[in-house]
Structure formats: structure tokens, C-alpha cells
Amino acid sequence: MREEDTSPGSGHVVVVGGGIAGLAAAHRLLGRGARVTVLEASDRLGGKLLAGEIAGVRVDLGAESMLARRPEAVDLAREAGLGERLRPPATATASLWTRGTLRPMPKGHVMGVPGSASAVSGVLSEEGLRRIERDADLPRTEVGEDIAVGAYVAARLGREVVDRLVEPLLGGVYAGDAYRISMRLAVPQLYAAARTHTSLTEAVREIQAKAAAAGQSGPVFMGIDGGVGRLPLAVAGSVTARGGEILTGTPVTELRRTAAAGWRVVAGDRVLHADAVVLALPAPAASALLRAEAP
Fold it and tell me: Average pLDDT of the chain?
């Protein structure tokens, strides 16, 4: 086993996980003067972001776009040299298969939550539309520190709104069950509005009015020419160009604090000493590494 001679306080950070989260962390740390080593257990980088081919056509097999109205991912793509490849989605219309036919995706909603019954006329049943109209007369639904999106929307507007609108949108974006997805984290603007409004439809209309006043008229999503799967490779290239080290096929098997207020990281036949460690891993893998230090 080869042990690196890295003195404490040298500013060395080990990032465990070479998905886009770990690569983005490494990229930012290098910009702040740290010495960075990225360790990835598999033989490829990118994690959930992966490009491939279907019937000879190059496609994204993971996420295919980024939120354009949040700066983090788009700025990262620019910093990694992909600025000229950023592309908004081509003009197209979204549709829903509901009630036996294909219907246009309604306008006037926030992640599937409508601002009025009329906004989803034709998509929901008459009973579903009447249920939305009851929202204004219902007592306040407390959201507390957090609440599941599906549970809150169903309580205010009925399950049909969740099952036919919110679930297809939110469940697809977050790869989860709308009845279990955190409203505070997934739709923070809706959570904030729900804390100050009794009526959900009124809260949605206020969110839309604020967006209009702020001039948010550009694309909601942004893609990359050649696929979002290019992003992790571009970020990795930027990391190595700035002096960072990236090792694939190097699973971390042990993580321990040291007496010198640092960390001892065992990865294959290497032992690295770090002043700080970033775990960019799925929760079960992170939990296993932290078992000795934070059971």
C-alpha cells in the first residue's frame, strides 16, 4: 500500500465521487486555491450524466437539459468551455396523454400546479375542475418545516391534479414519487408562497406575476450541443488543466480522521492524507464510509 506524504494544512481536498456533483465541487475548490484529488470507483466519470446512442442517434441517457433560470449549471458549462455549445430547446409543444387522447400541455401552471381551474380545462375531468375551485373556500393547510408536494397539492386541489399534471412533470424531473418529494427543496417558490397564502391557486398566480414582473421570458431549460453528457467530461478536462488529479477505477474503502485534524483516505493501494473530504456519493455509499466517524 502506497502512502502519500502530504503534510496537514497543505490545502489538500479529496473529493470522493466523480459524478457531476463531485466534479463541480473539485472545479470550485481549485478556483479557491485548494489542491484537489478526485476518486471515482467506476471506470467512467459523469455519474447520472451519460451520453450514448439509440438507433445510431446520439442522445443523452441521463438528464437531457439544465434549468436556464438557475445560474449554477449554465455557469459551470461556460466555465468548462461549453459556452458556445449552449442551446435552448428547439421550438416544440408539449402534450399530455390523458382521458383517451393527446392534449396540449396547459399554460398557467407552476410545475403542474394550476393557477385556476380554467387553466387546465380539457385536461382534467369536470369533477377535477370543480375540486380546484373549492381551493379558495378550504381552511389553511399548514406546511410546517416541509411537506411533500403531492400531499399538499392533493389536499388543496385534489389528487387528479397531482396524478395527471404534477406527477408527470415533477416525478420525471426528480426521478421520484410526487407524494414523497420535498416541496421546500423541489419547488421552493411554491413552498414560500404556501406559507403566506391560504389559497394555493392564489399563490400560483402570485408566483407567475412575480416571474412576469422580473422579465423571466427566456428559455426555462438549456441544453448542450452534443448532449448534456458532454458536461462532466468538459468539467473534468478543466479540473485536470488547472492541476487537479482525477483517478477512476479507484474505490475508497476507508475514511478516518487523523490526530492532525485531517483525514486518512484509503483507496485501492493508495493512502491519501487530506485536510478536507467532500463526499459526492449516493447516501448508502456515503453512510458506509462514514460509519466509523458518524455512525
Answer: 90
- Asked if 160 and 103 touch (Cβ cutoff 8 Å), the reply is no
Its pTM surpasses 0.85: no
Confidence of residue 1 (pLDDT cuts 50, 70, 90): low
The average pLDDT across 255-272 equals: 91
Pairing of strands 35-39, 245-247: parallel
158 Cβ contact list (under 8 Å, min separation 6) = 128, 131, 132
Asked if 128 contacts 158 with a C-beta cutoff of 8 angstroms, the reply is yes
Which are the contacts of 223, defined by CB distance < 8 A and separation ≥ 6? 64, 65, 66, 86, 87, 88, 89
Residues 6+ apart with CB under 8 A from 109: 115, 119, 120, 165, 204
Nearest to 232 by CA among 50, 62, 68, 95: 50
Q: What is the pLDDT of residue 104?
A: 85
